[in-house]
Write a structure and sequence with these properties.
Blueprint lengths: L2 H16 L4 E4 L5 E6 L3 E8 L2 E7 L1 E6 L2 E6 L2 E5 L3 E8 L6 E7 L2 H10 L16 E5 L2 H13 L3 H6 L1 H14 L3 H6 L6 H14 L7 H7 L4 H12 L3 H20 L3 H7 L5 H12 L3 H12 L3 H7 L2
Antiparallel strand pairs: 1-2, 2-9, 3-8, 4-7, 4-9, 5-6, 5-8, 7-10
Helix pairs in contact: 1-3, 3-5, 8-9, 10-11, 10-13, 10-14, 11-12
């Protein structure tokens, strides 16, 4: 048995013990979520925050425009922007899909890059212009992931050891094929940095009116140039991206807080509840309340429990 395969088996054992139900749920450590699916799920919209996703068993496929990304026991996923995309889950004969998601923290990235000195000045490389990518999982990253999962079994170890292991995992990714993409997150110049700022505003101010022309002006670009650079990073248009963020936020409000569609629509910035319902059904394939009930039933908890268990 190779070291990588032994790592995978150990990760499966630990995740089997740590996961308490389906979905992506918080762990004992802030920014680290545990992933489990007991059956396969068809392609459907999701919204991930900037993160490193490591799968120990099963397979996920992410679809962004015409790009397809497979992340499984051999390949981990790196997302450098809050990314709405479509995802399908495959569960085979070897048990449930099991994985862990680790939020990318800019403060940790910045500190690591300062300590890495000359390495941070190298060219960004092929991965620098991609906001989502799948990369082969090596033995060192697998070993660090095992130590993180072991620490998550104890509140004290999660608190004391967890942050340092997350720091090591971030370092391992920085040293790998997708290091350029992570380093680009802290770039202060260039079109990608301007798009990063626009994405941050969309996620923090999604309930307020946001004009695409205003975003382009803040980025120092024409509207056409802004569209071009935005689509290069996210594989979608600025308007569609903002709409996707609002619809996902509304779904989480209905799942987590148990509010109705009209209230959720108002809270995410829609002036017309009927327009919200039409766009929601077109995007998710079901009316708002039906989709909220479906998500809640899959995760098997009440709206009150969802406030704690859905990130």
């Amino acid at each position: 048995m190779t070291g990588i395969e032994a790592n995978r088996k150990r990760m499966v054992e630990l995740l089997e013990a740590l996961t308490t139900g389906e979905g992506m749920r918080p762990s004992l450590l802030d920014g680290v979520k545990l992933i489990r699916a007991d059956r396969s799920y068809p392609r459907s919209p999701v919204l991930y925050e900037p993160s490193i996703v490591i799968v120990a068993n099963g397979r996920k496929r992410g679809y962004v425009g015409d790009r397809v990304y497979t992340y499984d026991a051999q390949n981990y996923l790196v997302l450098t922007v809050p990314m709405p995309f479509e995802c399908e889950t495959e569960v085979g004969e070897n048990g449930p899909l099991l994985g862990v998601s680790i939020r990318v923290e800019l403060a940790v990235l910045s500190e690591l890059m300062m300590n890495m000195n000359m390495r941070t000045r190298q060219a960004h490389g092929e991965g620098a212009d991609r906001c989502i990518s799948a990369t082969p999982l090596d033995a060192k990253l697998g070993e660090a992931t095992i130590r993180l999962l072991e620490a998550l079994g104890s509140p004290l170890e999660a608190k004391v050891l967890g942050p340092q292991i997350v720091r090591e995992i971030t370092y391992r990714v920085l040293c790998g094929e997708q290091g350029g993409a992570l380093r680009a997150l802290l770039s202060i110049n260039g079109a990608q940095a301007q798009i990063q700022r626009a994405l941050h505003r969309m996620h923090s101010e999604y309930a307020s009116p946001i004009e695409i022309a205003s975003l382009a002006g803040e980025a120092g670009m024409s509207v056409s140039a802004f569209h071009h650079h935005f689509k290069a990073v996210t594989a979608t248009s600025p308007l569609q991206y903002l709409k996707t963020v609002r619809l996902h936020k509304a779904l989480m409000l209905m799942v987590q807080d148990g509010v109705g569609a009209a209230v959720a629509a108002d809270k995410v910035g829609y002036e017309s509840a009927s327009q919200f319902s039409r766009e929601f059904k077109r995007f998710f394939g079901a009316p708002p309340i039906d989709e909220a009930e479906r998500v809640r039933s899959v995760l098997a908890f009440t709206p009150q429990e969802a406030r704690v268990q859905v990130g």
